[in-house]
Design a protein that fits this description.
two-stranded antiparallel ribbon, binds zinc ion, 355 residues
């Protein structure tokens, strides 16, 4: 049934949106290995998709076997096979080493979502569960070891997407899911802070350790001016540090990585607002922000053709998938990945002793 539905969606896409794009740019679907078989591969081919991206999230024997099987299927159908690893949001690592998580300090506006969360004492800090960013020495090392282990023994993919190389959501404490410029907005630290080039360093380290030919960082934009009274709950972080720090982190990363992916699940990020044309219009705006914001903060604008738009294919209608692709193409994005698996971006506060 799913395949038939997909064939239907894809058929419409192939005729309407995709046919307009004669370039060999990436047009991929992100799936779990279990969802990918001969029928799905043939359907993707027919619908003019030109690659598959498989989520890699377990290093157990059975998941390894599934990835191996799915990679072989892709090869049989001459579909380049990429892998996708969720980096920062990792409950296994957060449970094992809670001190590596990002924290919620600074503004208390996030508490509107968690009114029962208690105030931390002096030797406690509120951590953003389960987010373990690579922006600290300890988080970086633990995540590098984890990513290397996840890929160990798997076939070499055409490329590797690394998602969430920034801080955790609600970084300044405002509660905005896209405020991600820091890991600890306050003095209570349980890790050693790295410089703004940590994402660039991480991509470099993963490339060296795994020898995957192309490591593609997946980046997210920050809050926007019109969010001030809504998602930022009155906090002036848009005109404050968000974009300034964003540009400091993006600049070295853009120097290191030619293709960059942009995480654009418009509904997951609460961006399906009536102010955006066709609801998915935020996607076009976000791609433009990658040019206008670096220009505002003495960085290098990222031309849209360097960006691979990561779109929301879960919990949306067929029409909304098409609207997202249309917006990405209108903005001039170099390619797109429609994720059929949910990319979970949720978080919750956890109190921890930090000393
Ligand atoms: Zn903020
Ligand atoms: Zn912000």
């Amino acid at each position: 049934m799913r395949s038939v539905l997909l064939a239907l969606i894809c058929g419409i896409l192939a005729e309407s949106v995709l046919a307009a794009d004669p370039t060999a740019s990436l047009r991929a679907v992100l799936l779990d290995a279990q969802q990918f078989d001969d029928v799905r591969a043939a359907t993707l081919r027919l619908a003019d998709f030109n690659a598959v991206v498989l989520r890699v999230d377990g290093s157990g024997e059975s998941s390894r076997r599934e990835i191996g099987r799915a990679s072989a299927t892709a090869q049989r159908h001459q579909l380049p096979c990429y892998f996708w690893i969720e980096v920062a949001r990792c409950s296994a690592l957060a449970d094992m080493r809670p001190e590596l998580m990002a924290s919620l300090q600074g503004h208390p506006e996030w508490r509107r979502y968690f009114p029962k969360s208690t105030e931390p004492t002096d030797d406690e800090v509120v951590k953003t569960y389960p987010w373990v960013p690579i922006m600290s020495r300890e988080g970086f090392d633990a995540q590098l070891a984890r990513v290397t282990k996840l890929l160990d023994g798997l076939p070499t993919p055409a490329g590797l997407f690394l998602n969430d190389l920034q801080g955790a959501p609600s970084a300044c404490g405002c509660g905005h899911p896209l405020c991600r410029w820091t890991t600890d907005y306050g003095p209570k630290r349980s890790t050693t802070k790295l410089g703004p080039d940590s994402a660039a360093q991480f991509v470099e380290a993963v490339s060296k350790a795994t020898r995957v030919p192309r490591v593609i960082p997946v980046w997210a934009t920050e809050c926007e001016a019109h969010d001030k009274q809504t998602l930022c709950a009155g906090v002036g972080c848009y005109e404050g540090l968000c974009w300034k720090e964003f540009v400091k982190q993006l600049t070295p990363l853009a120097k290191r990585s030619e293709p960059l992916a942009l995480l654009l699940p418009f509904r997951e990020f609460e961006r399906d607002l009536p102010i955006y044309p066709d609801h998915a219009g935020w996607i076009r705006e976000a791609i433009e922000l990658m040019q206008t914001q670096p220009a505002r903060h003495r960085g290098t604008p990222i031309p849209p053709e360097r960006l691979i738009a990561v779109l929301q294919g879960w919990d949306v209608s067929h029409r909304e998938v098409m609207a997202q692709i249309a917006q990405a193409q209108l903005a001039g994005a170099g390619g797109f990945v429609v994720s059929q698996v949910p990319i979970d971006q949720s978080w919750e506060p956890r109190i921890l002793k930090w000393k």
